[in-house]
Design goal:
By secondary structure, this protein is an alpha+beta fold. It folds into 2 domains: 110 residues, Nucleotidyltransferase, domain 5; 124 residues, Gcn5-related N-acetyltransferase (GNAT) (Aminopeptidase). It has 8 helices and 14 strands. Strands 1, 2, 3, 4, 5, 6, 7, 8, 9, 10, 11 and 14 form a 12-stranded mixed sheet that branches. Strands 12-13 form a two-stranded antiparallel sheet. The longest helix has 18 residues. It is globular and about 60 Å long.
Length: 281
């Protein structure tokens, strides 16, 4: 089970919806948060979807669960939106969920592209990406994992400033990140140049052996040195050395609307691309 479906995470964020509905259909579970009269999974996370007591439930079990969900929603007269995880979080369960939901009246609301690195394979960024790394390496930058709250806050402030400059602040405050750390393992990193922090990143350990990049950014005045290319590769190498299966860099679109610059960066890094569906009824 990924962390966004765990009760501790859901209860921590339950103030973001008016009501939580814990539903169990013979071992197939889903939690729906109610906002403005409509139901969402997730209501405050990158994705939600079903959890299962069995690692790979049968098609019949999943279709029965989706039928019961449909009947429950009809009885409540509620609209429902479900964002499924990318396939790296259990390809069989995600595929069964998508198929069975469609068979029970759900339709695609939008689809995002999700980018990840399969860490069981060699890291193979393309030549343009490698050239950017060489530019950064000439500056002798230091990659480090944060060891205390002061370093964590420094990383956050770099990210916060970066995102505000781009016109969208972080979706999580520093205080919210700290609270999330009580229910989810979070790693924080800095990239330094001449002992000056120039880039920061927050990574959730979202599922066993899967690390998910949640927030990152650099200082504008250092962009010419290509720090993010080096930072991205060092993050991937960090988790590869620790025998993680995947480094999930997340989507390059929001609500189906693409960010071409972000897509190009992750493509050059050598990421695999999968679909992350949001369905509704």
């Amino acid at each position: 089970m990924h962390v966004f479906n765990k009760k501790e995470f859901l209860e921590l964020n339950r103030h973001k919806c008016s009501e939580l509905h814990y539903l169990d259909f013979n071992g197939i579970n889903i939690v729906l948060g109610e906002k403005s009269g409509e139901l969402y999974s997730p209501f405050s996370a990158p994705f939600g979807g079903f959890s299962s007591l069995q690692k790979n439930p049968s098609l019949e079990i999943m279709e029965n669960a989706c039928e019961k969900l449909y009947e429950w929603l009809k009885e409540k007269n509620k609209k429902c939106h479900i964002t499924l995880p990318p396939p790296i979080y259990n390809q069989s369960l995600v595929s069964l969920s998508f198929y069975s939901l469609q068979n029970r009246g759900f339709s695609i609301e939008y689809t995002d592209l999700n980018y990840s690195l399969n860490l069981s394979k060699p890291l193979q960024p393309n030549p343009d990406f490698c050239r950017n790394i060489k530019v950064a390496l000439k500056k002798n930058m230091l990659f480090k994992k944060c060891k205390n709250n002061s370093e964590n806050e420094t990383a956050y402030e770099i990210i916060n400033t970066n995102r505000k400059e781009q016109g969208y602040p972080p979706h999580l405050s520093f205080e919210e990140l700290q609270k999330t750390g009580s229910v989810c393992d979070i790693d924080c990193f800095l990239l330094e140049l001449d002992e000056i922090p120039i880039a920061g990143a927050y990574v959730y350990l979202t599922a066993p052996k899967i690390a998910q990049l949640i927030l990152w950014g650099d200082k504008r005045e250092y962009k010419k040195f290509r720090p993010m290319s080096l930072f991205a590769m060092r993050l991937a190498e960090h988790y590869k050395e620790r025998d993680f299966y995947y480094f999930d860099l997340g989507p390059t679109s929001k609500n189906g609307i693409p960010n071409y610059g972000l897509s190009y960066f992750k493509h050059k890094m050598g990421c695999e691309i999968t679909l992350k569906h949001t369905v509704h009824i």
